[in-house]
């Protein structure tokens, strides 16, 4: 019975810890459309600006 309760607790707590870690990621960790030389490329926003691109495609 203890193993069952422990397994249920782990299954309930694990998704919460993953969700909280995603919330703390910096903005540069997500990918966005970037327009570079007429081409739309998916990259991190800071890299888009570094390569002379425009965000939003």
Automatic annotation (TrEMBL):
Signal peptide: 1-19
Keyword Signal: yes
Keywords: Signal
Source superkingdom: Bacteria
Keyword Signal on entry: yes
Name of the protein described by the UniProt record: DUF333 domain-containing protein
Organism: Vibrio owensii
């Amino acid at each position: 019975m203890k193993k069952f309760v422990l397994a249920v607790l782990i299954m309930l707590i694990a998704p919460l810890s993953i969700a909280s870690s995603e919330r703390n990621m910096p903005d540069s960790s997500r990918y966005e459309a970037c327009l570079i030389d007429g081409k739309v490329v998916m990259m991190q926003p800071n890299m888009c600006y570094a390569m002379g691109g425009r965000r939003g495609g």
